[in-house]
Design a protein that fits this description.
The protein has 366 residues and is of the alpha/beta class. It has 2 domains: 6-84, Fe-S cluster assembly (FSCA) (GMP Synthetase, Chain A, domain 3, 2-Layer Sandwich), CATH 3.30.300.130; 90-357, P-loop containing nucleotide triphosphate hydrolases (Rossmann fold, 3-Layer(aba) Sandwich), CATH 3.40.50. The protein is 32% helix and 22% strand. It is built from 11 helices and 16 strands. The strands form 4 sheets. The chain has an 8-stranded mixed beta sheet, sandwiched between helices. The longest helix is centred in the last third of the chain and has 17 residues, at 331-347. GO terms for molecular function: 4 iron, 4 sulfur cluster binding; ATP binding; ATP hydrolysis activity; ATP-dependent FeS chaperone activity; metal ion binding. Homodimer. InterPro entries: FSCA_dom_sf, MIP18-like, Mrp-like_CS, Mrp/NBP35_ATP-bd, NUBPL-like, P-loop_NTPase, YlxH/NBP35. It comes from Marinobacter salinexigens.
Amino acid sequence: MTQISPQALETAVRQYRDPYLEKDLYELGAVKNLAADDSGKVTLMVELPYPSKGIAGALKEIVTNALENVDGVDSAEVHVGQKIHAYKNQKDIPSVAGVKNIIAVSSGKGGVGKSTTAVNLALALKAEGARVGILDADIYGPSIGMMLGVPEGKRPDTRENKYFVPMEAHGLQANSMAFVVTDKTPMVWRGPMVSGAVMQLLQQTLWDELDYLIIDMPPGTGDIQLTLAQKVPVTGAVIVTTPQDIALLDGKKGIEMFRKVDIPVLGVVENMSVHICSNCGHEEPLFGHGGGERIAEEYDTTLLGQLPLHMTIREQTDSGLPSVIAEPDSEVARRYRDIARRVGAELSTRERNLTGSISSVSVTEH
C-alpha cells in the first residue's frame, strides 16, 4: 500500500478557504486532529470559531474530496463542529452572568426595520448552531414579544422574587419590558429610569449559557443610547439602515456613537434595499441604491447584507413567525443566515475575554 504523505494531507486540507474569514483551516486554527491509519482511512476533526452549521456540509464535502484525491487515501471522514468563545467588551465592563457575547442591534432613527433585523438575526444565529437570547431594550416601543409570538399578558416566571426566568420562544431565551407591563401602559419615563430598567432586565434575568445575547436597542443616538452603550458590556454592534439619505445620515451617527465608547461596529445591515413587487417580482430601489455600501466603505466596516422590502417579511414578523422560522428555505431566510455567519465570523477575530464563561462546543454531522 502507498505510504500516505502527511504534507500531502495538509496541502489537501489547505485547499479549503473559509468564505467569511478568507483563511485556510490551518490559519484559522480550526484543524484539531488529522490522522491516517494503515488501511488508508483518513479522519479529520475541524472546529470553526463561529456559528457555521449552514456551511458545514459544503466544507465537509470539499475537504473530503480533496483528501480522497491524495495518493494512498482510500476513504476520508471529516467531522465539522464549532467553538464559540467570549470576546472582550468595551473597557472591560464586567460580563453578564450566563452570557458570553452581547451584540447590540441599533439604528440612528426609527422605522428602518431594526427590531425585525434583531429578531431574525437572533433566530439565524440559533439556526447556525449557537445558543442565543434576545433582550428588548426598546423601552418606548417594545415589540420583540409580539414578533416572537409570545401571547399577550404572558409573564416570565421569577426566582427568589428577584430574578426573571427568560421566556422561551422559537428556541430563543427572551425578555422584554413588554413582558412586565401591559402593552397599553405608556412608558412616560425620563432617560435615567429607562437605562435603569434596561440594566435591571439585563442583570436580573437568569440567562442560561448563551453564546450570544442580542439587544434590540432603542432607536436614535441620544442620552439613553449613550448611557446604555457605556453601561452594558457590549462585544460588538450591528447598525441597521435603509438606502435613504436621511437614514444613512443617522446610521453614521450610530457608528460614531459606538466608536466613542470603544464598541466595535461589526457591520451594517441595509434594509429595504429593493422593493419586490408581489404580483410580478419586479425589483425597484424605491429608497435609493448602494447606501449601505457607501457607509460601510466610509467607516471602514462591513456591509453584512442587504434585505428587500417585501410584504411577507412584515406579515411573518407581525404574525409571530419571523422569516427565518416561517420560511427557513426562502431567499430572505438565507440572507439572514448569511448575515449571522458574517457577524459571528467578524466577532471571532476580536481579542478573547479570558475572564468570560467557558466556550461551548457543538459538532455538526451531515
